[in-house]
Amino acid sequence: MDNLDYGIIGNCRSAALVSKTGSIDWCCLPEFDSSSVFAKLLDDTIGGSFEIQVDDSYVITQRYKKHTAILITRFTSGDASFEIRDFMPRYRKEEGYNSPPELVRFFKHISGKPVFKVHYDPKLEYAMGKTETYVKKNFIVSLTHGEKFDTCFLYTSFNKNAVLEGREITLKKDGYFLMGYNEKLFLPTVRKMYMELERTKVYWLNWSDKTPNYKKYNAQISRSAITLKLLSYDKTGAVLAAATTSLPETIGEVRNWDYRFCWIRDASMAIKVIGDLGHRNVAKRYLQFIVDLIPDKDEKLQIMYGINKEKKLTELTLEHLDGYKGSAPVRIGNAAYKQKQNDIYGILMDVIYQQLSKYHNDTENGEELWGITKGIVWIVSNHWKEADKGIWEFRAEDRHFTFSKVLCWVAIDRAIKVARLFKKTAKIEKWTALEQEIKRDIHENAWNPEVNAFTQSYGSPDMDASVLLMESYGFIHAKDPKFVSTVKAIEKELSNDGLLYRYKNEDDFGLPSSSFTICTFWFINSLFKIGEQEKAMKQFDKLLSYSNHLGLFSEDIDFKTKRLLGNFPQAYSHLALIECAILFSNKETEEQVLESIS
User: Fold this and answer.
1) Which keywords does this Swiss-Prot/TrEMBL entry list (predicted)?
2) What CATH number should be reported for the domain whose range is 6-208?
3) Cα 89 from chain centroid?
């Protein structure tokens, strides 16, 4: 498989990746950041997978059930045909939601006598020790005594010995597999699994029904919104950057990181978009996650946390795994949690303001959010003049990054707006002076007259795609000549066959050879806003064509081959896709209104 041709299934507790031939090659249980049960994605030989094998006469197609996270893989050979409906159960109960740490593969018999084999090969605890699998009376159990003791259980309507031995199975009626972290107290049946499928379908249809309809790109907006929801962790409100670890930004290189954590920046951006789509509960839970993280008023935010609010994310290397396509190292944990990035305060304040402005009369934690607002202003006022690592997490020396400074301005600007909502007039005057001071500083130091653009950092000639967000955050108007010339300079310097580099100056690992997908969306967004709308829409359609067969994006795209690279699916890419799609769709609506008036 040359591309990341996978679908994601999940239940806001964990997730699994299913290949376009129906093989589960990545799954961690019981939670997103637990150790893997299947990790063929990171090692073809020892990683472990759950494969459904058919002979070459079968045509295999794959799609999502519309407006759901249920993945349907269809196998057809002549008059023999069946479907696998893969999902992780999630539905409402009287108290909260049912989201057990398990996945279901429901086999639907369509016609004829289809034949398949199963290759069931769990490798618990990242395949660190030996996993042994046994047939018991009611289930198949797998266990490891390696580094740690761990188990998982497989229930099925098929012959358990035939399954484990990889013998041919003829499908004559509907059947199922249920693989879970816990032993079941009540034995599953085909009927019960069908009910789980239907309940899960209803949950996703109800959830998707809250997403508005747009004139254009409805399918892409819906799929991206569901993907963002799948990357949200219900228990605490955290939002993950991606569902995987160590998928490389470039094949054979070492930019491989664990993304199964909650970056304040990525999560806040995702929540803002989901909030704009009307999914208020996800946003409310995330804000509670933030409230819970800041118990002390002088405690600075980390740039990222574990999904269960862990503050220490020790980075380890799994030497025994080969890595995706041989791209070692495989890392778990992420040392970036120690970095200082001043932009997170502005991005978080932006979300707090968005939620309070929409619901300030109906916010349970309004007082706590006002407390956090004051705390953020205090931290920014004391630290905005300091250098940091920036949005791209340069591991070398700190610099005065333009994006970080702009987001410090955003923090104060949104805090002033929150103060207005709460009628805290004494703060407004004091904070306005600070907001003006930061704004002046950026105009004086980030603008480089030689290149006629705002550059990556103070005194630098280098371009950086993150500077494009100056306009989105309201720092500068789209038609301001300084912004227009910055967009042009970024296009000239960073665009490569319609895809964008984040930056081109060498970082700790040399020049990147893949495009960071969100940057291309940012660029398209900026092009549109400066008036080059036709060009922007053309580039948008081209970029959408680089998604995988299910409309999903990873973090990066290879400049030459256009293959997807980096962790998958990536919250960043999908939130930026939604922003562009809504922008274009709203434009269409405006034009239609004007036509009807004239």
Assistant:
1) Hydrolase
2) 2.70.98.10
3) 20
- 156: enclosing H helix or E strand: strand 150-156
The amino acid at residue 572 is Y
Mean pLDDT to the nearest integer, 231-250: 97
Whether pTM > 0.90 for this model: the answer is yes
| Closest C-alpha to 14, from 121, 140, 152, 159 | 152
Closest residue by Cα to residue 257 from 266, 357, 149: 266
Give residue 294's pLDDT.
81
The identity of residue 534, as a single letter, is E
pLDDT at position 590 over 60: no
One-letter amino acid of 457: S
For 214-238, letters b (16+ CB in 10 Å) and e give bebbeebbbbbbbbbbbbbbbebbb
Ranges of each domain in the chain: 6-208
Residue 564 pLDDT grade (very low, low, confident, very high; cuts 50, 70, 90):
very high
Any bridge partners for residue 385, and if so which?
A: none
Strand, coil or helix: what is 95?
coil
SS3 497: coil
Tokens of 63: 């799609």
Burial level of 244, CB count in 10 A (0-12/13-18/19+)? buried
